[in-house]
Design goal:
about 300 residues; alpha/beta; Rossmann fold; 2 domains; six-stranded mixed beta sheet; four-stranded antiparallel beta sheet; 10 strands; globular; binds adenosine-5'-diphosphate; binds magnesium ion
Length: about 300
């Protein structure tokens, strides 16, 4: 059987007009095995979302091959891409993206209704089962606004699973909930990955969360820069403070390199995008330095 995800020299350039181009991906080669649980880390603006969207057929590359379950989707039109997304991909987003006027149960039914493979009664039954699976059997008739962030994200996970996708893509799924809830969400996705065997790719800023994955990919400035050696750590145990700190320090080095690269590209960017990127980096830098400081204080 072919690998679920294979990227060959994938390039994405956004043309902003007026001669300004942004190289969001600069030649990505990547093979992901069936059932793998992977996290992608890297400073904001390095191309994580672009990469995920291209794998999931939400966006098309400027160049290169995007092979999903043996099919190259790089040159597909919107109609064909929509079919690939429906049948093969489950998306989980940072801001949940649930339909506000629909209940949890209805939100989970939507993808199955679009696919039209099952009769309505079966669709409803499956949606209830999925909400059970994510521990929300008591929230079937709640609308998004009547649920907590963590609950909404669990509905989104149930929805992502609706059409039995072979690949789950999650873009900062814990970015909008507190740390404790974030952990629960990641454990849920990890548990589903172990029992249902889907291939999972998660973008996260939290090094501790990245630790539960089998492989961490680091991106910087549109490239995957390396695959650092796997830390031997039991996912169910507490993350060792030293290892967590190592991850934070590594992230800090990448962030500093990104800032340098931003300065190099300064003249190519509009003043606005430059300022926006710089503020983003500075915020991250502050957050990281604080986290590193705390990790030293905890040790004492
Ligand atoms: P990340 O998810 O790592 O923060 P993104 O993939 O969102 O990064 O963005 C990568 C780069 O591409 C950034 O410089 C961003 O400004 C640019 N970019 C992303 N989407 C677009 C778009 N639709 N149009 C123009 N530039 C974009
Ligand atoms: Mg992003």
């Amino acid at each position: 059987m072919s690998d679920p995800v294979e990227l060959r020299d994938v390039v994405k350039t956004y043309d902003l007009g007026g001669g300004i181009r942004v190289d969001a991906l600069r030649g990505i080669d990547l093979t992901i095995k069936r059932g793998e649980f992977i996290s992608i880390m890297g400073p904001s603006g390095c191309g994580k979302t672009t990469l995920l969207n291209i794998i999931g057929g939400l966006d098309s590359p400027t160049d290169g091959q995007v092979i999903i379950d043996g099919i190259n989707i790089a040159r597909m039109g919107e109609g064909e891409l929509a079919r690939i997304r429906r049948e093969k991909i489950g998306f989980v987003f940072q801001f949940f993206n649930l339909v506000p006027l629909l209940t949890a149960l209805e939100n989970v039914q939507i993808p199955m209704i679009f696919t039209g493979r099952l009769p309505n009664a079966e669709i409803k039954k499956r949606a209830i089962e999925l909400l059970h699976l994510v521990g929300l059997e008591h929230r079937l008739h709640h609308r998004p606004a009547q649920m907590s962030g963590g609950e909404q994200q669990r509905v989104a996970i149930a929805r992502a699973l609706a059409n039995e996708p072979s690949i789950i893509l999650a873009d900062e799924p814990t970015g909008n909930v507190d740390q404790e809830t974030g952990w629960k969400i990641v454990r849920l996705i990890k548990g589903l990955n172990e029992t249902l065997g889907q291939t999972c790719i998660i973008v996260t800023h939290d090094p501790a969360i990245a630790q539960v994955s089998e492989r961490i990919l680091y991106m910087i400035d549109g490239r995957i820069i390396s695959e650092p050696p796997r830390l031997t750590i039991n996912p169910s145990s507490n993350i060792l403070a030293d290892e967590r700190r190592q991850m934070l320090l590594a992230e800090l080095r990448w962030l500093e390199a990104s800032i340098k690269s931003l300065e190099r590209r300064k003249t190519k960017l509009s003043q606005e995008s430059y300022a926006e990127a710089k503020i983003g980096y500075e915020k991250q830098l502050e957050r990281l330095k604080k986290a590193i400081q705390e990790s030293y204080e905890k040790r004492r």
